[in-house]
From TrEMBL:
Residues 89-161 form the PDZ domain. The keyword Nucleotide-binding does not apply. Belongs to the peptidase S41A family. CDD domains: cpPDZ_CPP-like, Peptidase_S41_CPP. Coiled coil: none annotated. NCBIfam families: prc. This is S41 family peptidase. It comes from the Bacteria. Pfam families: PDZ_2, Peptidase_S41. Keywords: Hydrolase, Membrane, Protease, Serine protease, Transmembrane, Transmembrane helix. The chain crosses the membrane at residues 7-28.
Length: 529
């Protein structure tokens, strides 16, 4: 494996697999007694598991055998039919629901104690007066410091049932005694809108990180705000967005399309077709829209991009999207686990299926990013392979292609300055965020009078800070490291992490976007309209 492959984000395949399901609860047309009646194939599996359970020479955890069996069955179907073990269901469900019950902090285990990086805006901890930099030492009398205090232990002590109280003892720098807080657990949002602000006087910007149950409500709120601020054009950033619920994507598309425009249609193995059309409720039907996509924009992201492209609405900017056109629905298995099973394919309004082939197995399927990188298509649009047999035309005559992702109207190459192996490693490990927290903790009061706007426009990360970060990394990984070739990139991400910890509310994205070549292209395009 090349070094490039080694250090690129290893979690992308897992994130894509977990994130790009589409659907709701399983809704078979067949009755349950017909679907789940006994037959020889099911009896064979039951008999084998029982035989192992009772007769095998050694004790065996037959639950694990069942898990392996289910995974083995699904792996022979398609890459997006997945099994969710019961121990993962709560986390997965919370992520897609868009909230969880807790106290609302992001924290960092620092020097054997729990340091609050930032409270969630509007969450229970912020309302109670807890601040960034606080150390939570006790929760309901139980200590939260010392060696062996894992994240799991911490979370279990802080999370709980809604409307229950947790009494916290907190150390705050400058205070002579520990502070006492009573925090009432409540729903804490997991935001799916990373940032929403004005790029120019007329161009708004919204970045969506996934399509969860709460996403449309968040999106509509931000869309209204930006429109009231004067946005007549909108940049919808779906880069790195692995997808989510189909109906949420449809609602977002509806904000941009006129009444009765086709958004998509689905077809199952029986040939049953279901069509979804736009309604008259959209508030941005007359505004121009730019959709930003890349090779990790998948599923619901592609529904949005495909629907707008096929209806000649706005401009798709970036690189060819992931290529996932399968629809999943979820079925609980009775023991806390569940299966998400592919039940149909979806098609864009012109009739395109953008699902790429998985004939060579799941491994090759999830490794296609490297194939695209090696082929040169991430740098040169001429290297994108298309098939004339999958050519379609929009109502205005624009040629579009099916067969593996949404090809953008305006291509923007991968920014190779951000692809340095060491730099990619630093972003993955969280070292930048941890370094920023420790530096901020030394002089938090120095930023008290700094506004978000002044920080974004004027604040400068110095060479001395980069040198301190270099020393910080060297102490932790025990090897020599140099940032000479990507010093500017390190400065950018240190500033972004600092902005996030100081101001939250999309500051990270605002800082990064100042040097984002795709954002620059969108601004140029918007000015040409």
């Amino acid at each position: 494996m090349s070094k490039t492959k080694q250090y690129l984000p290893l979690f992308l395949g897992v994130a894509i697999a977990a994130g790009i399901f589409i659907g709701g609860k399983l809704n078979f047309s067949d009755a349950p007694d017909r679907l789940f009646t006994s037959n020889s194939k099911k009896d064979k599996l039951n008999r084998l598991i029982d035989y192992i359970d009772y007769e095998y020479v050694d004790d065996v955890n037959t639950d694990s055998i069942v898990d392996v069996t289910v995974n083995g069955i699904l792996e022979n179907l398609d890459p997006h039919s997945v099994y969710i073990p019961k121990e993962d269901m709560q986390r997965v469900s919370e992520n897609m629901k868009g909230d969880f019950v807790g106290i609302g902090i992001s924290f960092y285990p620092y020097k054997d104690s729990i340091a609050v990086i930032r409270t969630v805006e509007g969450g229970p901890s912020e309302k109670s007066g807890i601040m960034g930099g606080d150390r939570i030492l006790f929760a309901n009398g139980d200590s939260l410091f010392g060696k062996g205090m894992t994240n799991e232990i911490i979370v279990n002590k802080l999370k709980g049932s809604i409307d229950t109280d947790v009494n916290l003892k907190v150390y705050r720098r400058g205070e002579p005694e520990l502070l006492n807080f009573k925090v009432t657990r409540d729903h804490v949002p997991i935001r799916s809108i990373d940032a929403a602000y004005m790029l120019t006087e007329t161009l708004g910007y919204i970045k969506i990180n996934r399509f969860a149950e709460s996403t449309y409500k968040e999106f509509k709120t931000e869309l209204k705000k930006l429109k009231n601020l004067g946005a007549t054009q909108m940049a919808l950033d779906l880069r790195q967005n692995p997808g989510g619920f189909k109906n949420i994507a449809e609602q977002i598309v509806d904000e941009f399309l006129e009444d009765d425009k086709l958004i998509l249609f689905t077809k199952n193995k029986r040939g049953h077709i279901e069509k979804t059309f736009a309604t008259s409720k959209g508030i941005f039907e007359n505004g121009n829209v730019f959709v930003l996509i890349d090779e990790n924009s998948a599923s619901a992201s592609e529904i949005v991009a495909g629907a707008l492209q096929d209806n000649d609405k706005g401009t798709i900017v970036g690189r060819r999207s992931y290529g996932k056109g399968l629809v999943q629905r979820e079925m609980e298995l009775g023991d806390g686990s569940a299966v998400r099973l592919t039940v149909s394919r979806y098609y864009t309004p012109t009739g395109r299926s953008i699902q790429r082939s998985y004939e060579n197995g799941n491994r090759d399927y999830y490794d296609e990013y490297f194939s695209r990188l090696d082929s040169g298509e991430l740098l040169d649009p001429e290297k994108i392979q298309v098939a004339d047999s999958l050519k379609f035309k929009t109502p205005k005559g624009k040629v579009v292609y099916g067969g593996g992702g949404i090809i953008p109207d305006v291509f923007v190459p991968l920014d190779m300055s951000m692809q340095n192996e060491t730099f990619s490693y630093l972003k993955q490990t969280g070292f930048i965020s941890y370094f920023v927290f420790e530096e901020l903790d030394k002089q938090r009061e120095a930023y008290d009078n700094l506004t978000k706007e002044d920080f974004i426009n004027d604040f400068v990360i110095t060479d001395d800070v980069v040198q301190d970060f270099q020393d910080y990394i060297r102490e932790r990984i025990r090897r020599k490291i140099s940032f000479l070739t990507f010093k500017d990139e390190v400065k950018l991400y240190i500033k972004a992490a600092l902005g996030e910890q100081l101001f939250g509310n999309g500051t990270y994205e605002e800082v990064i976007n100042h040097q984002d070549i795709m954002i620059e292209e969108v601004i140029k395009l918007s000015e040409a309209y």
